[in-house]
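A student in our group prepared the protein record below, which I am reviewing. I have pasted the whole thing underneath without changing anything:
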Amino acid sequence: MNAIIGKLKRTRLFANVSEDNLIGLIEQPGIKSGKVGDTIKVKAGDLVVVLEGGLVMTSADGGDHLAAFVVDEKAKDPAILYTIPAGAHLELTHKSLYLVIDGDRLDAAMSGAQEAKSVATLDDAVRERVALLLKSAPFKELTFEHICRCAAAMTSIAVKAGTDIVTQGAPGDFFYVIEQGQAEVWRKGEEKGATPQLVAKLGPGAPFGEEALLQDDKRNATVRMTSDGRLLRLAKGDFDKLLKSQLVQEVGAEDASRKLGRRAADLIDCRYEAEWELWRIPNSRLMPLDDIRERARGLDKGRDYIVYCRTGRRSRAASFLMRQMGLKAVSLKGGIAAWPYELEGGVLGD
């Protein structure tokens, strides 16, 4: 492994990729071997690294000779096929050892190397915040520069065990990320005399408080510290400007209908069951906002999702939470109230 890492590190492409990331790129899917005439299977965006041996790349119809490499076993540097046209055919011309590297994973590794260099130039307080936010779900879709802006706008506060950071029914004023410590999320049902139920436990890097800010509504749960700790908090105005504008995506009814008609997306209704039973968009799947963290876990991350509610407020929060989970979710602008197409059920209530 060390010899292979050494070879890769001598190339300009891999020079700045950390050794840990290189090991990850090598181990999955692993070093492959093949004999003369074997075909190399690749997908769009992949790179092929020939460590020993040789290959030839021809056009899809076999008519055009596009590239050829031969690497002697004593060669210091590997041969790298950077670009593979759609449909191209790759065939080994020698007994070979080679790697097929996923282009997206390589880009992520290279971006991480640049981010590490950039983090080193920040002042100590912001650098520590950025390092935490890079691992926190809401920030994974943001550019590094945008994360730095969020970190600079945040303040760090010390908190004691037993403190209620947000209280169910109170207005939303801040978005939080746990720096240090542990917390619990408690939610009380709307029925009279309901007892609060523990719904989640949170640790370092966990975000909370976004739902009320996204809906411009009251807090739907109480978050209580179970240990002393520190929190990063972002005021609502900064949250709207820096996070909401970047992470909440909306789609209009016409585009949504077209996409659903092609079966290019699945439809999620994040209202309560009583609302769904009364009136709904056909073929929608019920997944109330209060339960979405739990119920969305089984969704296919390869699918697109359109989320709707009555007016679009709850679905903005739901799609935000789903995107934190790695799902491709957008909110239906205006909700079911603005849906001009077929509905099923009873009469739209207030």
